[in-house]
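Look over this one:
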Amino acid sequence: MAAKTIGIGMIGCGTIGGGVAKLLRDHVEIYQQRTGCRIELKSVLVRSQDMTRVLDEGFVTAGQLTDDPEAFFNTPDMSIVIELAGGRGAVSKLVRQA
């Protein structure tokens, strides 16, 4: 029987967000053993899609990145949203929307 998948959405992918994405990628088997569910990063909302570092290091794929909040919040099968973006203003509004 296939494990249930928990879809994760992430707001922000700078230093901290990139590290979290790396952990989600590198330790997927450990998280599945501990939770009984497969943890899958579904979408990452960023200010700019020019995220060369996280793409080059393979933390996320270009298909996971979006700078469109509406597209992010309409991602299918995304049940958890974590906020890892710095700053206030627009980020606070996005957190309330989540």
Summary: Helices lie at 15-26, 28-35, 52-56, 69-73, 90-97. The two ends are 31 Å apart (CA to CA).
